[in-house]
Specification:
It is a single chain. The chain is an all-alpha fold and 179 residues long. 79% of the residues lie in helices and 0% in strands. The mean pLDDT is 90.
Length: 179
Protein backbone atom coordinates (compact mmCIF):
# COMPACT_ATOMS: atom_id res chain seq x y z
CA UNK A 1 0.00 0.00 0.00
CA UNK A 2 1.25 3.41 -0.97
CA UNK A 3 0.12 5.09 2.27
CA UNK A 4 2.89 3.32 4.19
CA UNK A 5 5.52 5.18 2.16
CA UNK A 6 4.27 8.67 3.04
CA UNK A 7 3.90 10.74 6.20
CA UNK A 8 0.17 9.96 6.05
CA UNK A 9 1.07 6.63 7.60
CA UNK A 10 1.31 8.43 10.94
CA UNK A 11 -2.47 8.88 10.79
CA UNK A 12 -2.85 5.11 10.44
CA UNK A 13 -1.42 4.80 13.97
CA UNK A 14 -2.69 8.06 15.50
CA UNK A 15 -6.36 7.83 14.49
CA UNK A 16 -7.11 4.38 15.99
CA UNK A 17 -5.58 5.64 19.24
CA UNK A 18 -7.73 8.76 19.02
CA UNK A 19 -10.80 6.57 18.51
CA UNK A 20 -9.81 4.40 21.49
CA UNK A 21 -9.53 7.53 23.64
CA UNK A 22 -13.01 8.66 22.60
CA UNK A 23 -14.45 5.19 23.25
CA UNK A 24 -12.75 5.07 26.65
CA UNK A 25 -14.25 8.37 27.77
CA UNK A 26 -17.73 7.70 26.41
CA UNK A 27 -18.18 4.08 27.42
CA UNK A 28 -15.67 3.05 30.08
CA UNK A 29 -14.92 6.19 32.12
CA UNK A 30 -18.20 8.06 31.64
CA UNK A 31 -19.00 7.97 35.37
CA UNK A 32 -15.53 9.26 36.24
CA UNK A 33 -15.73 12.05 33.67
CA UNK A 34 -18.96 13.32 35.22
CA UNK A 35 -17.06 14.22 38.42
CA UNK A 36 -15.54 17.71 38.74
CA UNK A 37 -12.16 17.92 37.05
CA UNK A 38 -10.02 20.27 35.04
CA UNK A 39 -12.98 21.34 32.92
CA UNK A 40 -15.14 22.32 35.90
CA UNK A 41 -16.16 25.93 36.42
CA UNK A 42 -14.34 25.99 39.76
CA UNK A 43 -11.01 24.88 38.28
CA UNK A 44 -11.28 27.24 35.33
CA UNK A 45 -12.05 30.18 37.64
CA UNK A 46 -9.09 29.24 39.83
CA UNK A 47 -6.83 29.12 36.76
CA UNK A 48 -8.06 32.48 35.59
CA UNK A 49 -7.13 34.13 38.90
CA UNK A 50 -3.85 32.25 39.43
CA UNK A 51 -0.47 33.77 38.73
CA UNK A 52 2.14 31.51 37.16
CA UNK A 53 5.65 31.44 38.57
CA UNK A 54 7.87 31.07 35.50
CA UNK A 55 10.73 29.55 37.52
CA UNK A 56 8.56 26.66 38.66
CA UNK A 57 6.62 26.34 35.42
CA UNK A 58 9.78 25.91 33.31
CA UNK A 59 10.70 22.77 35.29
CA UNK A 60 7.23 21.37 34.82
CA UNK A 61 7.35 22.06 31.07
CA UNK A 62 10.78 20.51 30.73
CA UNK A 63 9.53 17.41 32.52
CA UNK A 64 6.38 16.96 30.43
CA UNK A 65 7.68 18.17 27.05
CA UNK A 66 11.45 17.65 26.88
CA UNK A 67 11.72 14.32 28.72
CA UNK A 68 9.37 12.39 26.38
CA UNK A 69 11.00 14.05 23.37
CA UNK A 70 14.48 13.12 24.58
CA UNK A 71 13.34 9.57 25.39
CA UNK A 72 11.97 9.16 21.87
CA UNK A 73 15.13 10.74 20.45
CA UNK A 74 17.23 8.27 22.42
CA UNK A 75 15.13 5.35 21.23
CA UNK A 76 15.44 6.61 17.65
CA UNK A 77 19.06 5.46 17.64
CA UNK A 78 18.26 1.92 18.79
CA UNK A 79 16.67 -1.09 17.14
CA UNK A 80 13.30 -0.37 18.79
CA UNK A 81 12.90 2.97 17.00
CA UNK A 82 10.03 1.90 14.76
CA UNK A 83 7.94 0.27 17.52
CA UNK A 84 8.68 3.28 19.74
CA UNK A 85 7.39 5.62 17.03
CA UNK A 86 4.24 3.54 16.54
CA UNK A 87 3.59 3.33 20.29
CA UNK A 88 4.15 7.08 20.63
CA UNK A 89 1.64 7.80 17.87
CA UNK A 90 -0.97 5.43 19.33
CA UNK A 91 -0.48 6.84 22.85
CA UNK A 92 -0.69 10.41 21.55
CA UNK A 93 -3.92 9.53 19.78
CA UNK A 94 -5.38 7.96 22.92
CA UNK A 95 -4.40 11.00 25.00
CA UNK A 96 -5.85 13.40 22.45
CA UNK A 97 -9.09 11.44 22.22
CA UNK A 98 -9.46 11.41 26.00
CA UNK A 99 -8.71 15.13 26.29
CA UNK A 100 -11.08 16.26 23.56
CA UNK A 101 -13.85 13.89 24.66
CA UNK A 102 -13.59 14.95 28.31
CA UNK A 103 -13.65 18.61 27.30
CA UNK A 104 -16.70 18.19 25.08
CA UNK A 105 -18.45 15.99 27.63
CA UNK A 106 -18.05 18.61 30.37
CA UNK A 107 -18.24 21.89 28.43
CA UNK A 108 -19.67 21.16 25.01
CA UNK A 109 -18.22 23.01 22.02
CA UNK A 110 -16.58 25.51 24.40
CA UNK A 111 -14.48 22.62 25.71
CA UNK A 112 -13.17 21.75 22.28
CA UNK A 113 -12.35 25.41 21.66
CA UNK A 114 -10.57 25.55 25.03
CA UNK A 115 -8.46 22.57 23.95
CA UNK A 116 -7.49 24.31 20.71
CA UNK A 117 -6.57 27.50 22.57
CA UNK A 118 -4.64 25.42 25.11
CA UNK A 119 -2.53 23.90 22.34
CA UNK A 120 -1.70 27.19 20.64
CA UNK A 121 0.83 28.51 19.75
CA UNK A 122 3.35 25.98 21.09
CA UNK A 123 2.01 22.96 19.23
CA UNK A 124 2.67 24.72 15.95
CA UNK A 125 6.32 24.11 16.83
CA UNK A 126 6.08 20.82 18.76
CA UNK A 127 4.28 18.98 15.96
CA UNK A 128 6.89 19.65 13.24
CA UNK A 129 9.71 18.76 15.65
CA UNK A 130 8.02 15.45 16.50
CA UNK A 131 7.20 14.74 12.85
CA UNK A 132 10.87 15.09 11.92
CA UNK A 133 11.89 12.78 14.77
CA UNK A 134 9.13 10.25 14.09
CA UNK A 135 9.90 10.23 10.38
CA UNK A 136 13.52 9.50 11.21
CA UNK A 137 12.46 6.68 13.55
CA UNK A 138 10.20 5.21 10.94
CA UNK A 139 12.42 5.46 7.85
CA UNK A 140 15.91 4.53 9.06
CA UNK A 141 18.07 3.30 7.23
CA UNK A 142 16.74 5.20 4.20
CA UNK A 143 17.18 8.51 6.04
CA UNK A 144 19.98 9.66 8.28
CA UNK A 145 20.03 12.06 11.19
CA UNK A 146 22.06 15.18 10.48
CA UNK A 147 22.99 18.52 11.99
CA UNK A 148 20.15 20.41 10.27
CA UNK A 149 17.57 18.10 11.87
CA UNK A 150 19.23 18.49 15.26
CA UNK A 151 19.19 22.29 15.02
CA UNK A 152 15.59 22.36 13.74
CA UNK A 153 14.10 20.06 16.38
CA UNK A 154 16.11 21.68 19.18
CA UNK A 155 15.05 25.20 18.21
CA UNK A 156 11.44 24.16 17.61
CA UNK A 157 11.18 22.45 21.00
CA UNK A 158 12.92 25.31 22.83
CA UNK A 159 10.75 27.95 21.14
CA UNK A 160 7.65 25.85 21.83
CA UNK A 161 8.50 25.63 25.53
CA UNK A 162 9.09 29.39 25.69
CA UNK A 163 5.78 30.07 23.94
CA UNK A 164 3.98 27.65 26.23
CA UNK A 165 5.52 29.33 29.25
CA UNK A 166 4.80 32.96 28.38
CA UNK A 167 2.18 33.20 25.59
CA UNK A 168 -0.14 30.25 26.19
CA UNK A 169 -1.28 31.23 29.72
CA UNK A 170 -2.20 34.68 28.43
CA UNK A 171 -4.22 33.19 25.55
CA UNK A 172 -6.02 30.70 27.81
CA UNK A 173 -6.86 33.37 30.38
CA UNK A 174 -8.15 35.66 27.64
CA UNK A 175 -10.31 32.85 26.24
CA UNK A 176 -11.64 32.00 29.70
CA UNK A 177 -12.55 35.63 30.32
CA UNK A 178 -14.72 35.55 27.19
CA UNK A 179 -16.56 32.40 28.38
Amino acid sequence: MKIFRTRKQFLVFFMPGFLLGIIYVNFIARKYMAEPGIFSDYFLNQFQSASIDAREYIWYLLRVRAVPFLALAGLSFTKVRKPAAVLFLVWTGISGGILISAAVLNMGIKGSLLCVVGLLPQFLLYVPAYVVLLWHCYTVPQTHWNRQKTVFVSLAMAAGIILEMYVNPVLVKAFLSVL
